[in-house]
Amino acid sequence: MTNPVDATLALAVLTLAGGWALHASRLYRRLDRSRRDPLTGLWTRDGWTRRAQRIIGRRPRAAVLLADLDGFKPVNDRHGHAAGDAVLAAAAERLTAWCGAHGVAGRLGGDEFVAVVEDDASLDDRLADLAELLRQPVEHQGVKLTVGASIGAARLTALPQPTLTAALKAADQAMYRVKGRTRRGRLLLAPAFAALRGLPQRLRPAA
Question: Which pLDDT belongs to residue 187?
Fold first, then answer.
């Protein structure tokens, strides 16, 4: 015969365990949401870093890139913050589509984005695709908004220390070299439109 005291104790333990499990689940979801940028839905620095570290651990042949939207401030100043937000949201969606299933994108803040993707022989062409993709106009309230894009990338296999920290530093240096060239009117990356085919119709440039 079951001892009523034991049964009551077991029920109390199960109830307590269930309560903690529910609390932990809610806490995890809350933390996960806090690592998402509310405007773009991309991972913030902390959330992206965690996922990038896992990708690098599984795929030593990875590349890290930083992308900065050139001319973003004039869009904000001339058309307002809602227009700037539309540009950022479009850039985030385009970057996510470009990364594909095996990469992850994030927003570091302002108009600076970050991503980690698999490195392969076509990476240079894919980066050119991304640069052109981010330069395509964004429709907002009947106005076409256009920004430029400076992108710096670092292959982990090319670094003395193949770590995420080293890759971010190298990508940042490469991005500012590109930014210096584009400011002098010389485009580093050639136009390429292959990535456009994978985007929703609403994000493609008008014919």
Answer: 42
* One-letter amino acid of 114: V
DSSP designation for 194: G
pLDDT digits (tens, 9 = 90+) for 115-142: 999 999 999 999 999 999 999 999 999 9
Judge whether 70 counts as a catalytic residue: no
Strands 62-68 and 104-109: unpaired
pLDDT at residue 75, rounded to an integer? 96
- Which member of 37, 68, 111, 129 is catalytic? 111
- The pair of three-digit structure tokens given for residue 173, joined into one six-digit string: 């240096």
- Report residue 159 as tokens: 């670094």
Which tokens belong to 89? 């949201």
| Residue 207: CB atoms within 10 Å | 3
- In this structure, what DSSP letter does residue 39 have? T
Is 128:190 a contact under the CB 8 Å cutoff? yes
